[in-house]
Amino acid sequence: GIACENSSPVIANNIIRGDVTKQSVGIYLTNNSSSTIINNLIQSTSYGIYVCAICSATIISNIIENHNCGIFNLDGHIDIIDGNCFNGNEYGVIIDGASSTSNIGNVEGVENEFNFESGKSKYGIYIVKGNTVYIGYNDFFTLTAPLPHWTRAIYGGVHWSSVVDTVIEHNIIQNISGGIQIVFASNTIIN
Fold first, then answer.
1. How far apart are CA 37 and CA 59, in angstroms?
2. What is the pLDDT confidence band of residue 54, given thresholds at 50, 70 and 90?
């Protein structure tokens, strides 16, 4: 994959593929890196994009598929996640401890698509500890026939806990077992 340390590149138009063991990272930002990640195909790694503390990213128009986690943000800052296609990931986006505003969907006029895989996918967006998150105009769906609720691993489109100041609006959640799950959140608006 691509690792960025103390750098600010534009990462664009790449094909990044892991292997069947999924023990790698597609794009890894660490040590005060700031990157724009645009128009890449990232397949079959443990993490498609991993953003560490004191790093920031703008992630636009990528195909991110077949990962344990498509985008993982650990105490970093992701300005925009927009126009991406998430296919068959266990988790599409995990935000754990975002320090400030994250905008997920339709900031640049194109929504994200989260295509769930029955028996594998759990959540499209999973947020634990964060401040000021906007989630809007995303599509959460499965193209496969739904399985009975007790046999599928799909838990929901959006889950968040311990998050302050969140707006969730105009998302489409269809043909999956759960929609939106809220735990210990304040100042939340759902339209």
1. 5
2. confident
pLDDT tens-place string over residues 55-93: 889 999 999 999 999 999 988 888 889 999 999 899 999
Using an 8 Å Cβ cutoff, are 17 and 39 in contact? no
Joined together, the tokens standing for residue 135 give 């989630």
| Tens digit of each residue's pLDDT (9 = 90 or more) over 3-46 | 999 999 999 999 999 876 667 899 999 999 999 999 999 999 99
Q: What is the pTM of this model?
A: 0.88
Q: Which residues have a Cβ under 8 Å from the Cβ of 150 and sit 6 or more positions away? A: none
Q: Which residue has the tokens 């988790």?
A: 91
Distances (CA, A) of 50 to 21, 84, 180, 186: 17, 15, 24, 27
Burial of 147 (0-12, 13-18, 19+ CB in 10 A): middle
Return d(Cα 62, Cα 53) in angstroms, integer.
Answer: 22
**String of DSSP letters for 43-84:** ESSSEEEEE-TT-EEEEES-EEES-SEEEEEES-EEEEEES-
Burial class (CB in 10 A: 0-12, 13-18, 19+), 94: buried
